[in-house]
Amino acid sequence: MEIVSQVSFTQVFEAAGGFVGPHVCLCVPAGCERGVFIHKLRVSTVAPVSEPDAMPLVYIPASLVLTAAEAAKSEVVCRCCDKLPDTDASESVVLALFLLTERARGADSPWEWYINALPCVGTNALYFENADIAALQGTPLGSAAEAKLRQLKRQYGCFAETLDCWQCSQNLELTLSFEDYKWASFIVLSRSISLHSCDESVVDCDSNGYPHGRCDRALIPFLDMFNHCARPNAYWTVNSNGSVSIHAAAASTERSDINSDQPSSIELCLSYGAKPATEWAYEYGFLPLDNRHDAWPHFVQLAGSPSLVAIKRMWIQELGLSPRVMLVDPAATMPIHSSDRGYLSRSALLMLCLAALDDLSDKCTHAVGKILPAMPYFSVGGAIVDDDEKLLQLPGLATFARHKCSSQLSAQAFNMRASSYHTSPKPNPLVLAYLETQSSLVDRIADYLTDHLI
């Protein structure tokens, strides 16, 4: 187990006001990624978070919590943000620009110790190769990766000249390229967190002494060294003064035996939250085992003539509906032999029903009756449908909409499975794993919708 290379990071962290508890250390087990470990003999003596005044495993002072408020103190970051449209100057962009420019400053940056400890090579969706994108065509992961890269390239184009001028004024030898900005964005996407404590409480941003303003995203040295576990043995919380504490918890961890070199140590893990596989692969570049929170983001297509589609768009806007319907894994959420009630939310069923209505389809006409657009409403079988409740009560529509959704999902599952087998050259292991798990998930959802037609 490699410990020596992590010592300097911990020393600088503590010199800057951080605290690392006894027998807690950063280690790199053979064949595994870096993590935070504690000596087993210390585990029973560490107070869980529920105990009052418990000494934390790790304490990060507010001065080391890197937010957009801190990053915006950089003149070059502000100049770059001025070149962006207002909608693009998000907290994540500000943090990425700060990392980009501070990394270029090297030893002149007070954050060099932290930046040097960050991964040098990206592993999430921003680093997919052409073969990966080709295999992911038609999937939400592929679409998200392509959209994010387009956004980053557009943003970089806005401030590239400003960066060039700054580099010349600083006499920097290196040239900051788009790849450097992509790296900084990867770090923010995969390592920044929302400033909410582990129990979902929110610190009052207006309280006296709270230094982070109304910032939400943050990069937090040492906290981002903890790996993920669905059953964590550590939790973090934001304190009223803006500092962050990491405490032990009573729960055991699935990763406790990962360290075969040193059986006297166990790994301390946090939970990164409940996310579907698409988000795990997109943000972090890995898929956790036995994800009980998986879900498929189904993007509905509005069927029908242009006149009917225009009415549907108006309804969607007025009703606050989303064209993305999250379909959870029925195997993880529905009891065996349960009824279907509660699987689809009312808004999800409403979106599926509205999208499925098709005045150009004989199948739809046979299922629900003749459909005629009548802006701002429409008639079905001669009756005007002028509100969402009437739409849901149309005889046969819910069954037709679910059957149509099930057919679309089955086709998506087939295409994903075909991509994993037939794409050449082969995509990377993460993409193959994603296609395999998601094709199985989508098949389960499609079967469930078919088996519970109403």
Automatic annotation (TrEMBL):
InterPro entries per the UniProt record, alphabetical: SET_dom_sf (IPR046341), SETD3_SET (IPR044428), SETD3_SETD6_MTase (IPR050600)
Gene3D superfamilies reported in the protein's UniProt record: set domain protein methyltransferase, domain 1
SUPFAM superfamilies the UniProt entry points to: SET domain (SSF82199)
CDD domains assigned to the protein according to its UniProt record, in alphabetical order: SET_SETD3 (cd19176)
UniProt GO MF annotations: protein-L-histidine N-tele-methyltransferase activity; protein-lysine N-methyltransferase activity
Domain of life from the UniProt record: Eukaryota
Protein's UniProt name: SET domain-containing protein
Organism name: Coemansia reversa (strain ATCC 12441 / NRRL 1564)
